[in-house]
Amino acid sequence: MSTLDQSFVTNGSWKPDLFKGKVVFVTGGAGTICRVQTEALVLLGANAVIIGRNVEKTEKAAAEIQQLRAGAKVIGIGGVDVRSVESIAKAVEVTVKELGRIDFVIAGAAGNFISDFNHLSSNAFKSVVSIDLLGSYNTAKATFQELRKTKGAYLFVSATLHYYGIPFQLHVGAAKAGVDALSNALAVELGPLGIRSNAIAPGLIEGTEGFARLAPPSEDGGNGLRDKIPLQKFGTSRDIAEATVYLFSPAASYVTGTIEVVDGGAWHIGSYMQDLYPSVVIAANEDPSAKI
Ligand code: COA
User: Fold this and answer.
1) Which residue's CA is minimally distant from atom 11 of ligand 1?
2) Is the pLDDT of residue 140 over 80?
């Protein structure tokens, strides 16, 4: 089911036809955050292609997003793994054939799990870096010639984990630090072609897999964690969608090479795992069943 509806247009901050005639290509578009980003762009006039590994989930999400606006075209292409640049290139071909162009790219596909260094195998590290970082590169690579024609924009979905070295997420933190560097370098290299590149760094966003993983249910209903966020609330997927609309809109036409942090100010406070540090790390390293 879609998160956004027509009220995003009628009572929202943006003009209804902001993205009329534009096409967005989204990896991970059936996942929580990237799906809502897509919904917002479609509601504001864009057509979209979302790609993902799971065929049924991706096609179902596309059909539901298409319902949001009369006349919208939203195509779901499943069976695409961002670790394969060829499989993304095929999805790009379909996009251009069916929708004519690509103006915006959201590189959002990501893989994650909680693991301390001691139990994180080399292959596990490689797996996450391959999805998050190499996958972002592959997405940029496969869509570049289309963005070049439209003088379009990239948006990479990053994170804030690597700002404070949160324990048990070093694989993701390393990958997302690379994503930030990739986006910044693309902004520099492709700026002269009229292509912009930015990243968005969500904080704790309610209703996501990442939230369930990093902020599991607690006795106080999460209040302790919430209190540590300067804005005193968790984020929503809509918060990420709003920032996405801004970054693709003409209002951000001079904005490139930035990392838009949407976390309620949380990272300035430091890791929310401070209370557990260093006991969790010591315990993880005491376990003799380390992996290679
Ligand atoms: N803890 C430690 N290692 C793990 C792990 C976990 N929870 N889950 C997977 N791994 C390791 C595997 O053991 C394997 O390493 P090994 O060969 O040394 O044993 C390696 O990671 C690759 O595992 P594999 O099952 O082949 O993963 P994959 O490459 O097909 O997919 C993920 C990797 C991250 C996508 C997969 O773990 C996953 O589906 N995660 C949950 C969904 C998700 O991440 N969604 C995105 C939300 S941000």
Assistant:
1) 124
2) yes
- CA 52 / ligand 1 centre spacing (Å): 16
Instruction: Kindly report the protein residue whose alpha carbon is nearest to atom 12 of ligand 1.
Output: 124
Q: State yes or no: is 158 an active-site residue.
A: yes
Report which of 101, 133, 110 is spatially closest to residue 24, judged by C-alpha positions: 101
237 counts as catalytic: no
Rounded to the nearest 10°, the torsion over CA 88, 98, 2, 237 is 50
Burial of 123 (0-12, 13-18, 19+ CB in 10 A): exposed
Indicate the pLDDT class of residue 54, thresholds 50, 70 and 90: very high
Question: Which of 32, 80, 127 to mutate to test ligand 1, by most ligand atoms within 8 A of the CB atom?
Answer: 127
Domain boundaries, the chain: 14-286
Summarised one tens digit per residue, pLDDT across range 21-33 is 999 999 999 999 9
The model's confidence at residue 114, banded by pLDDT at 50, 70 and 90, is very high
| Rounded Cα gap, residues 2 and 18, in angstroms | 20
- CA-to-CA distance for 181 and 169, rounded, in angstroms? 18
| Domain 14-286 = CATH 3.40.50.300 | no
C-alpha triplet 22, 187, 242: angle, nearest 5°: 50
